[in-house]
Amino acid sequence: MNNQETRVVRAALTDVGTFSRVLAPERRLRSYQEPLVRAVVESVRHGLGMEFAAVFSRQAGKDEMLAQLCAYLLCLYQKRGGNIVVALPTLRPQGVITRDRLLERLDHPLLHGLVNV
User: Fold this and answer.
1) For residue 112, which phi and psi values (nearest 5 degrees)?
2) Quick check: 84 and 53 in contact, CB under 8 A?
3) Is there a smaller number of Cβ atoms within 10 Å at the N or the C end of the chain?
4) HEC states along the chain?
5) Whole-prediction pTM value?
6) From CA 89, how far away is CA 76, in angstroms rounded?
7) Does the structure show a pLDDT above 80 at 103?
């Protein structure tokens, strides 16, 4: 990774909204999603252990929001380690789709070498 790419990745990791705009501009978080995602990130960063429920209408991007949140947290804490547990109604199809979406978000040229997918 060159110096410019390193700066871009560091900037993206300072804020989940920036992360979304840099790494998934065509699927960036919507304005109504960002406050919830930022609240989750702050809870994780400060060890608050808060619980959240995302209640949006159908087709509002909940699954994409979850994929980007998980990708951001995995990148942010990759050296420290940890786990993310996502509970879904079924393995097939929801679990498989969710896993594949997360892997797609992590499969970005700027993240190669940073995250092992």
Assistant:
1) -60, 130
2) no
3) C
4) CCHHHHHHHHHHCCCHHHHHHHHCHHHCCCCCCHHHHHHHHHHHHCCCCCCCCCCCCCCCCHHHHHHHHHHHHHHHCCCCCCCCCCCCCCHHHHHHHHHHHHHHHHCCHHHECCECC
5) 0.91
6) 27
7) yes
